[in-house]
Amino acid sequence: MELLRSHLSRVRIPEPTNRIYKTECCISFDTPRSEGGLYVDLCSFIAFGKEGVGWNYEKSGNPVYLHIQQRPKPVPEDRPLKKPTLLAIGVDGGFDHEETEYEETYSIVLLPDYMSLPFPSVELPEKVRLAVDAILIAEGAKRKEQLASWTAVKKKVSAYAMNLQQINNGVVVPPYGWKCCKCDKSDNLWLNLTDGMIHCGHRNWDGSGGNNHATEHYEETRYPLAVKLGTITADLEGVDVFSYPEDDTVEDPLLAEHLEFFGIDFSSLQKTEMTTTEKELDQNMNFDWNRIQESGQKVEPLFGAGYTGLVNLGNSCYMASIMQVVFTTRAFISRYYEHQSLKMAFVMAPSDPTVDLNAQLTKLAHGLLSGKYSFPVQEKQEGIPLCMFKTIIAANHLEFSSMRQQDALEFFLHFLDQVERGNAGKPELDPSRSFKFIIEERLKCPSGKVAYNKRSDYILSLTIPLHKATNREQLEAFDKLKAEKQLEGKDIASDEIVRPRVPLEACLDCFSAPEEVHDFYSSALNAKTTAIKTAGLSTFPDYLVLHMQKFVLEEGWVPKKLDVYIDVPDVIDITHLRSKGLQPGEELLPETGPCDVEPTHFVASEDIVSKLAAMGFNYLHCQKAAINTANAGVEEAMTWLLSHMNDSDIDDPISQNPHRIELQSVDETSVETLISFGFQEEVAKKALKASGGDIEKATDWIFNHPEASSSVDTELTSSGVQADDPAVPDGSGRYKLMALVSHIGSSTHCGHYVAHVYKDGRWVIFNDNKVGASIDPPKDMGYLYFFERIDG
């Protein structure tokens, strides 16, 4: 005890703002349930496993630790299983997370001799007792927060609910016997809360569901809210209310009044259909659905080195699937596993390793590849959590730090960017460069002269040419069958569905195919013209990632997922895609300086200005409106003008250099929305500026100004990356398929991601914490394909 008293200066009582770790080691995945338990440093409040605590003592000199151990309690054999009723983990009515209960014990340990003192004990110094009590209390609050982290996002109150106008047209809705006003559908029916009309819901991709009559009714009337019949009960909180202008399920605080208006006594109605949340819950209760997850197959569980699963933290499958693939590549294995030990990473890290990317990547690599945490627990493995890694990789990123589902492609690019930043100045150590390559674009104008642009990228994004499907006869027959079924009011059976099959080669051909660039400014002709653009690769990466553009916009700017199969061979050769640069006999377009750029690009359109001025607006203000909306049109300029009438600089003279005029700022959320539709960031910003920030008008502007995308493409540079840059690898164009990430769901921001990786001579499925020998890998259903270059 005297030894402990002599070290009290190295003991701190945690403040409310201190981060406290007591569930997981900062440099390994050891927990209180591990063989040696967990040691919490009573000075830094960082936890260490049995091996890491010694390293921490050597590095920091902190000698006093709270030792936590957990041992399983016997589980009664007659313990009842409860069906979850709430989309949450570990809360009343949610998923039962505690299959095994643990008994927790504590002691105070002094290093370097590992002297142990019991806790709780009145003999311990008061400072130690207060420090430990504060740690235990703080952890309890954190644990409760983690368990509730998967609770579904609360529905927002609709902006249209409180002032909803209802039409007294004599409609009285009966308690049963409902049918669509425009067809014979008697299920999936929606009651419009303005006029009481009943219509069927959205038609699904396979022909099932409704006939879109509810949506069409909204487009005709603009009546905003509808309630799903069959979900109405006395518990109005569980009723499905949809807002068409807000494009989301919402809460209507006045729903009882709105229903009563049409004679609906909600207290007497019985629920007959599942709500949207219940359907989501039903899917989450059975993660092994769909061919992607190889449901129905007897998948052999795998354990050991390289076969460690990852715990789903609540919609973290996008992250888990990418990291499983990444740590199958030689570059990342070498950098963070073979050539960097846990101790080395810890010693190099700052005082808090939880905020060091290098330390957390090394921790993850050793966790996945060592096999230490991959062993059967009741015929399955628990997997390791990505908590600390997610915290550091998603720092300052609004979306990845949330509990919402994200696009695996966006995360992959963000991850590689962070790794490149973490290895800045050390290109020879940077494993992200194994994915990097140079794209070269060639533009030829009617003058015969050419221009070359280079840019670096990590992925090759490919459009899917559905007209190149190899099973067109079967598709035509299916379309006829679907039309006949719709006339009969019948649904298409799942075994009758025929999907297009498009060869990967056709997708690659689209990338290199000549493309017209309209309104291209030719410095040789000193005028706008139409140029021909072709693209190729200056370098071939060690690992080629192909992104299949399965998410497109259909009519009405509605995001849609293409239900298509891609026939992907095990070996591809893209040698024909190598660009050759400037060829003998070709003449480059003259370079243009800032003063040579077309002078009318940001000069106000006199037509727009005169029309606005005729409406009574100040002439100078009209000029600014036209310039700041890139001369998009009178309506766009007026929208800008009305929202900037009170700007402090609205009366300031226009700059003599029109190119220095700063366009209006845009809402980053709106930019992200357009990017999620598949548009480039610069195009999205340009469209929003041209439409006064209105997303719908911005989307319309993009479709009406296709030259915008082309001009952005031609303006992109490789940020100083040269084709012969030693930081960018190069080699042969022959590749073998080594992994794919597949997506289940209608959007990249919902559903589920699964990875399949070819290793040790067989395909392996990584589905969160489930790892097994794949029987039927869905090679034709991938969202991202990973190819490894064949050397020699």
Automatic annotation (TrEMBL):
Function, please? Recognizes and hydrolyzes the peptide bond at the C-terminal Gly of ubiquitin. Involved in the processing of poly-ubiquitin precursors as well as that of ubiquitinated proteins.
Q: Which residues form the UBP-type domain?
A: 156-266
* Organism domain of life: Eukaryota
Q: Which GO terms describe its molecular function?
A: cysteine-type deubiquitinase activity; zinc ion binding
What Gene Ontology biological process does one annotation of this record name?
A: protein deubiquitination
Q: Which residues bind Zn(2+)?
A: C180, C183, C200, H213
CDD domains from the UniProt entry: Peptidase_C19B (cd02658), UBA1_atUBP14 (cd14295), UBA2_atUBP14 (cd14388)
Catalytic activity annotation: Thiol-dependent hydrolysis of ester, thioester, amide, peptide and isopeptide bonds formed by the C-terminal Gly of ubiquitin (a 76-residue protein attached to proteins as an intracellular targeting signal)
Keyword field contains Acetylation: no
Protein name, entry field: Ubiquitin carboxyl-terminal hydrolase
User: Which key words tag this protein in UniProt?
Assistant: Hydrolase, Metal-binding, Protease, Repeat, Thiol protease, Ubl conjugation pathway, Zinc, Zinc-finger
> What Pfam families does UniProt report for this protein, alphabetically?
UBA, UCH, zf-UBP, zf-UBP_var
**What region holds the USP domain?**
308-790
List the SMART domains hit by this protein, alphabetically: UBA, ZnF_UBP
Q: Tell me the active site.
A: C317 (nucleophile), H752 (proton acceptor)
The record's annotation in InterPro entries points to:
Papain-like_cys_pep_sf (IPR038765), Peptidase_C19_UCH (IPR001394), Ub_carboxyl-term_hydrolase (IPR050185), UBA (IPR015940), UBA-like_sf (IPR009060), Ubiquitinyl_hydrolase (IPR016652), UBP13_Znf-UBP_var (IPR041432), USP (IPR028889)
Q: Which residues form the UBA domain?
A: 603-644, 665-705
Q: What is the lineage of its organism?
A: Eukaryota, Viridiplantae, Streptophyta, Embryophyta, Tracheophyta
- Specify the enzyme's EC class, one word: hydrolase
Membership in a protein family = Belongs to the peptidase C19 family.
Please state the Enzyme Commission number of this protein: 3.4.19.12
